[in-house]
Amino acid sequence: MELKIATFEDLSIHELYQILQLRSEVFVVEQNCVYQDIDGKDQKALHVLGFDGKDLVAYTRLFAPGIYFEEAAIGRVLVKETHRGKNYAHQILTASIKAIEEQYSTEKIKLSAQTYLTKFYESHGFQQTGEGYLEDGIPHIGMIKN
């Protein structure tokens, strides 16, 4: 998988379209969750894109401390359904953690994890924090990496 890290301004129109299409495919259609994905935060995010050839197959968006949470944040973590089981999730999360450390000079990262993925995030050093909650009808839990 080829990785690209870009600000909103550095994304091409084609890349932005691929991002929005893939996020809709995974979070709206696959997870049957109607929610407002285009939330006005993409312009403030650093975007991590994972490509298989020309196809976007993995993605995250990153935030500096104080924008989404008090801590730096990772969100919209996804791998295209047809490309799961190829270690892409681990690759994109590792790249995202490294980008936060390099771009925002912090190792403290928070995310809102779908609860079925807690073991995956724990394998990258995240720990559950607080009580579980529903976000857009899906069980989530806060997780922090220090």
Tell me briefly what this model is.
Helices cover 27% and strands 36% of the residues. The protein contains three helices and seven strands, in the order βαβββαβαββ.
Task: Supply the key terms.
seven-stranded mixed sheet, alpha+beta, 146 residues
Describe the protein in words.
The chain has 146 residues and is an alpha+beta fold. It is built from 3 helices and 7 strands; from the N terminus they run E-H-E-E-E-H-E-H-E-E. Strands 1-2-3-4-5-7-6 form a 7-stranded mixed sheet. A hairpin with a 2-residue loop joins strand 6 (127-135) and strand 7. The longest helix is centred in the first third of the chain and has 18 residues, at 13-30. It is globular and about 40 Å long. The relative contact order is 0.15. The model has no long low-confidence stretch (mean pLDDT 95).
What is the radius of gyration computed over CA atoms, rounded to a whole number of angstroms?
14 Å
Summarize model confidence as the mean pLDDT. Answer: 95
How much of the sequence lies in strands comes to 35-45%
Count of separate DSSP helical elements: 3
Q: What is the molecular shape?
A: globular
Major β-sheet strand ordering: 1-2-3-4-5-7-6
The major beta sheet can be summarized as:
7 strands, mixed
- In N-to-C order, the SSE pattern is EHEEEHEHEE
Work out the helicity level. 25-40%
* Total number of strands: 7
